[in-house]
Amino acid sequence: MASLLEINPYNPQPRLIAQVVDVLKRGGVICYPTDTMYGIGCDIFNQKAVKRVYQIKKRPKHKPFSFMCPDLKDIARYSHVGNTAYRLMRKNLPGPYTFVLPGTKLVPKIMLTKQKTVGIRVPDNPICLAIVEALGNPVLNTSAMREDDEEPVIDAYDVADRFGSQVDLIIDGGEVFPNPSTVVSLVDDQPEILREGKGDISVFL
Length: 205
Known about the structure:
Protein name: Threonylcarbamoyl-AMP synthase
Pfam family, one: Sua5_yciO_yrdC
CATH class: Alpha Beta
Number of strands: 10
Order of helices and strands: EHEEHEHHEEHEHEEE
Number of domains: 1
Distance between the termini: 45 Å
CATH superfamily: DHBP synthase
Largest sheet: 10 strands, mixed
Number of helices: 6
Strand content: 15-25%
InterPro entries: DHBP_synth_RibB-like_a/b_dom, Sua5-like_dom, SUA5_domain
Structural class: alpha/beta
CATH topology: DHBP synthase
Domain YrdC-like: 14-199
GO molecular function, one term: double-stranded RNA binding
């Protein structure tokens, strides 16, 4: 069974974040709260861990996962960001958006679509931001839910019920009422809404 670690959702304790980072560096898979729902993740540079997440989610290999960065500067390392894209992201991040952008050579193949694009998030959640900053690498981001789940996952105990035997660590960061992120393509430097979710979309229209 996964360990459960309670972290302050507003002021994450650095020593607890260090424990999470240690699990990620050792190739662990974690569940964590975001600004949209509880997520499942790992270090995107650990291929074994990424493959484990594919198995947990029963997801086909041709559908890559998105990942989280701590800030816009980091996004520019892993994707090609045009002027319009930069301006829009600077105004709206951190926030409940996943931006689709052309990936750079730094992104592992397993995280790229056939079109060589990536989905990137900077969630408005102190725990997430503290983890990716302390790790120094992006963290894979996918919902802690399966296609056939009827009941939403609201807290760490729901996550433990569903994924406790398949992940290494579950972070308890309080309740998160699930509402998926809005997905915005900025591939041609012009915004296109691919999925409407949480967050104001008027800024992209």
